[in-house]
Structure formats: structure tokens, C-alpha cells
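As noted in the main text, all predictions were made from sequence alone. Below is one such record, for Ppx/GppA family phosphatase.
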Amino acid sequence: MPRFATIDVGTNSVLLLVAERTPEGRFTPVLERAEITRLGRGVDATRRLSAEGLEATLSVLESFAREARELGAQDIAVSATSAARDAQNGAEFIAAAKARAGVTVEIISGPLEAQLSFAAVHADFAAEAAGPLLVLDIGGGSTEFIYGNPAGHVDFRHSFDVGAVRLTERFVKSDPMTPEDRARVEAHLRETFRTLPPPPPGAVLVGVAGTVTTVYAVRHAIDPYDAEEVHGGTLSLSELSALVDRLCRMPLEERRALPGMQPKRADVIPAGALILLESVRALGLEECRVSDRGLRWGLLAHRFGAGASRS
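Prediction:
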């Protein structure tokens, strides 16, 4: 069966998916990898990708592209999101990725990012939900909300410039987070999310990306991380509230040692968890389902699925 690969370059992490396409047009994963490189470090303040962030990301991109080719991937689609969109030197990253990894990076828009994340969630949760789906995609630099119907049509989508890295750099001045830091984050989020339209009746909320999966893994002490244990899980509002309180009060070194925590994500997880909690509250819901399959899966179907463009 033909194999294809997608690489999702985010503000905080880089994710690789290599998958086989069956004759029926479905995709089966062959390899999934994730590395935290913090491409977006400092971008909120400087509007430039740092030398450190560029080098770390390019090194991982080279490694991921090589692995994909060694596994027989016929083509590799690479997307970049919030940090690359915001940075004045995004073109430098694109040129370096082509020269060093032999891949063409597409800096995708917020609306396309939202559409791809929704497509990935719809493929896995639509039949089970049997009603409207809401997708929450929390990244390092931005957070997307997508409302869609059971048929897969997107009715509303919006990308907000709030993410785990961006809010940590902007508001968190102490370790552990002080009550004053937390209050500033919460106030900013509540003001940002007040424009969200109410969800349709019976809607099911599904969260994607590293903040959501990490929060679930920590809540259930899933260590080492197991995508099959995480995917399809549920986080209640009460669970979220208690865990956020715990994460915000805990020093960095203690957070790093938590079962289920990626150590490199520990510094930004309090802000990320607050985004998750305030998102659920803003929507007036009582729980959030968890998806381990985000943008990279939507990009796979978009670029290499039945009828997709191979350009």
C-alpha cells in the first residue's frame, strides 16, 4: 500500500505522521513522532523566529523527513502554523527547510488550520457523537474553535491569538504561577472568548493537540504516553478545575516529574491548561473529549486522500 507523511510544525512542537493508504482510501498509521522544539519562543514579543528555535526545529525536521523517506513515504506534506504566520522571518524558515530537509513548508492560514483539525476529529468522532461537533485546538501560539455539523460542514471557525507559549511569555512572571499571574491569564482569556457564539444544542466538544492530551495523560498518570489510552478519553469540568489548581500551584521541577508529563512542556502547561478550562467554561459545557489525532491527520486526508491534489 502507498505510504505518505505529514509533518505539523507548531509554535511549541513538531509532529510526524507516516501512514499507509488502503485501497478503500483509509489511512493506517505506520509511525507517529513528536518533539518539542519551541519554534515560537519569543515571537509574541519580537515578531521574529529566534536562532535557537529555528535550529532546533530544522534539526528535527531533517530527522523526521529522513525517517519518513526511509519508511517509503512517496510524498511529505509539511504545514507550519501560528509562529511562522506571525514571524517576519518566516520565509527564512521555509528556505532553510527546503535546503536542509528537502521539504516544502506551507504556512497555513488560521481558517485552514481549523478546517484540517475539524476534519481529523470528524473522521473519528462524528458517528459516536451523532450531533454537532465542536473542536478545540490549543497550540503554542493560537487556539482554534470550530463548530460543525454531523455531515462534516463547518458552520463557524475562529483562530484566537492565545496559546500556551504566548500566554506564558506574556503573563507568567513567577514559578510557581502567582495568583496575580493566574488572574491576568484568566481575565485575558475570558475577554478573548466572550465573542464565541453559544454552541448548538447537544454539541460534543473534542480537544486536540499537546496541551489537551498532556492534561489527560497527567490526570490519569499515563506514563509512558500511550496514544490508544488517551484518544477518546473524557475530561470533566470538575476534573479540569482541580488539575489546573494543582498545576498552577506546583513548581516547575515538580511538574516535570509528574507521570504523563513531557518535561519540555512543563513550563507552559499551566497556561495551556487554563486555556482548556476557560474554553470549556466559555462554551457552557461540562466536559471535553480528547483526540490524539489533530492537524497532521487532517492534512494527510487533505493532501493525499481520495480526490486530493498531489501538487
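The mean pLDDT is 91. The first strand starts at residue 3 and ends at 9. These features were considered when defining construct boundaries for the mutagenesis experiments described in Section 2.9.
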